[in-house]
DNA sequence: TTATATACCTAGATAGACTAGGTATTGCCA
DNA sequence: TGGCAATACCTAGTCTATCTAGGTATATAA
């Protein structure tokens, strides 16, 4: 149903998480869970390919950092990513409004 | 991203259209367009398989009627379909709330 | 020492929606 | 009268977002 490219909610959510602070992959999963009040539990198999796609597209950049002997890969949103985020947010709002319009439609 | 079975928005929209009145397939497309203020343009290739699936699942029943020399296949929502609609509507609301929570999250 | 949590990654499967085709009738316009 | 657009139905095959299920490795708690 016109699931257009800029309506991919996973990318919207990931970009949204990165607005304001850099995060590493694993952290995004827990952050998403926290910010959505446990509604979303993104799978690693979903996240990592999306991060790779976002980096290839120039929407995020990455760098590595040490913490507790572990290497973490942090992601930072780019200017292009912020623009993309704004567009996807707008698309989401149009989509949600559309669904709500249909659901609340009163004949007559 | 946990796109669970009861979060299929197409079925939600179709069932929602059928609540209140019987419709035939082609009409659902124009109705959906109207009720969503032209946000949604469901493709026939999307709709008809969904209708078949809904009928097989007992969520709708169908009957044929003549109009202008054309045969139209009308669909009517069943009691089971109404229950399903209520569940999917609830799921949609949880999902939309989740996305909005993440989008509007203010750190601190 | 063994299990759990943290932290990264990928190949292949699943499934919802689309593309692109098909059939047939009605109504309009040139 | 001829032809095209709109109406009305349908399906096989494709695309792709997400999930499943696996892999590697380190730190920490039981």
Write the layout of secondary structure elements.
Two copies of one chain form a homodimer.
Chain A: H1 9-18, E1 23-24, H2 25-35, H3 44-56, E2 60-67, E3 70-77, H4 79-103
Antiparallel strand pairs in A: 1-3, 2-3
Helix pairs in contact in A: 1-4
Chain A binds a DNA duplex (30 and 30 nucleotides) through residues 1-3, 8, 10, 24-27, 42-46, 48-50, 52, 68-73.
Key phrases:
3-stranded antiparallel β-sheet, disordered N terminus, Arc Repressor Mutant, subunit A, 55% helix, alpha+beta, DNA-binding, homodimer, 108 residues
CATH architecture of chain A: Orthogonal Bundle
CATH class of chain A: Mainly Alpha
Mind telling me the CATH superfamily name of chain A?
A: Winged helix-like DNA-binding domain superfamily/Winged helix DNA-binding domain
Q: Helices and strands of chain A: which structural class? A: alpha+beta
Extract low-pLDDT stretches of chain A.
1-7
């Amino acid at each position: 149903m016109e699931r257009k490219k800029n309506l991919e909610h996973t990318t919207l959510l990931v970009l949204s998480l990165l607005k304001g602070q850099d995060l590493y992959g694993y952290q995004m999963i827990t952050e998403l869970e926290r910010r959505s009040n446990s509604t979303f539990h993104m799978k690693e198999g979903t996240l990592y390919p999306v991060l790779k796609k976002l980096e290839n597209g120039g929407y995020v950049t990455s760098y590595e950092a040490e913490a507790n002997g572990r290497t973490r890969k942090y992601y930072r949103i780019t200017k292009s990513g912020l623009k993309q985020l704004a567009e996807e947010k707008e698309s989401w709002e149009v989509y949600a409004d559309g669904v709500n319009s249909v659901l609340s439609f009163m004949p007559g």
